[in-house]
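Supplementary Methods. Inverse-folding protocol.

Structures were first reduced to a discrete structure-token string of length 117. This string, shown here, constituted the complete conditioning input.
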């Protein structure tokens, strides 16, 4: 199956368990992998027959507006559900990277969800 990949999209969301951490948006990197057969789009050279990755990036850049999460796990699941509902890939994997542990380059959570649930 084919994949459309958005690698390390930089977003700023309010996230963290303590309220103090959620007080200011923090930098996260998002990796998105969407499974979709792109043969019809490639054959016709037609954007409407695939997932518009530009539209996906615009949606994710605005996804955190007016919202906050305690866990990156919850954020990743919420994003996967939204992308499945709005862009109809067969499957979506979301990886959220957070930069809160000084001794580590980042911590991350990856979730995978399919259109069937």
């Amino acid at each position: 199956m084919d994949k459309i990949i958005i690698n390390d999209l930089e977003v700023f969301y309010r996230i963290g368990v303590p309220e103090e951490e959620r007080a200011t948006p923090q930098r996260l990197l998002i990796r998105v992998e969407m499974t979709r057969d792109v043969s019809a789009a490639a054959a016709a050279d037609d954007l409407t027959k695939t997932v518009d990755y530009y539209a996906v990036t615009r949606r994710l850049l605005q996804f955190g507006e007016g919202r906050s999460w305690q866990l990156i796990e919850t954020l990743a699941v919420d994003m996967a559900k939204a992308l499945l509902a709005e862009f109809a890939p067969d499957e979506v994997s979301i990886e959220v990277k957070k930069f809160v542990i000084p001794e580590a380059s980042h911590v991350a959570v990856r979730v995978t969800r399919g259109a069937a649930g």
